[in-house]
Amino acid sequence: MKAIILDRDGTINIGQQYITALNKTRIYRDAPTALKKLQDAGYKLVVFTNQACVGRGIITEELLKKINTRIIKLYKATGVNLSRIYYCPHHPEAQIPKYRKACSCRKPATGMLRKAKREFGIDFRHSFVIGDALKDLEAGKKVGAKTILVLTGNGRRSLKELKPRTRKAVDYITPNLLSAARWILKQG
Ligand SMILES: [Mg+2]
Ligand SMILES: [Zn+2]
């Protein structure tokens, strides 16, 4: 199965920070068009997101799940089917003990991607990881996916912070999801 693995905040959902309230959940205007094209081309769409705000006690895991469900619904209303949103609630210095650990799911680690591979039989060699942060793409590179940096969210800042060493994690840089989708579809 080929897949598009998407970061959440700053990539499919507007924002430069964590979402802390349900009513702050907003999707990019062109994102449904972009994801629909990819879905129609046979890509499974999955989302992976670091949400240390849970471990830090800023929002509860329950609210995080509600926010994720809302994002899935907003996309579903446009005809886009996000198969799953994987999240990492952990942080090594989380205030809440049960989330305090150096886990293997927090990006740039690959735990969420490996889970998605198990669950959906994803073939990373024919898949793309898209995000506005370098750690999204570093995780993607580690599993052998092609990686795209979008300049929405924190993307412009990520671009400025690219170093020769980290540049290798990025296969393509593009303004937004729609231009990313066009590039992917040209790869054949
Ligand atoms: Mg992001
Ligand atoms: Zn984790």
Set out the fold topology.
Layout: E1 3-6, H1 31-40, E2 44-50, H2 52-55, H3 61-76, E3 82-88, H4 111-120, E4 128-131, H5 134-142, E5 146-150, H6 155-160, H7 164-167, E6 172-174, H8 177-187
Parallel strand pairs: 1-2, 1-4, 2-3, 4-5, 5-6
Helix pairs in contact: 1-8
Describe, in plain words, how this protein is organized in 3D:
This protein is of the alpha/beta class and 188 residues long. The protein has a single domain (3-187), classed as Rossmann fold, CATH 3.40.50. The chain is built from eight helices and six strands. The chain has a six-stranded parallel beta sheet, with helices on both faces. Helix 1 runs parallel beside helix 8 (177-187). 45% of the residues are buried. The chain binds magnesium ion (MG) and zinc ion. Magnesium ion (MG) is lined by residues 7, 9-11, 131-133, 153.
Give the SSE order as H and E letters: EHEHHEHEHEHHEH
Q: Specify Rg, calculated over alpha carbons.
A: 15 Å
**CATH architecture grouping:** 3-Layer(aba) Sandwich
Low-confidence stretches: none
Strand content: 15-25%
Intertermini distance: 15 Å
Specify the structural class.
alpha/beta
Described by strand count, sense and barrel closure, the largest sheet is: 6 strands, parallel
Give a list of the ligands. Answer: magnesium ion, zinc ion
Number of strands: 6
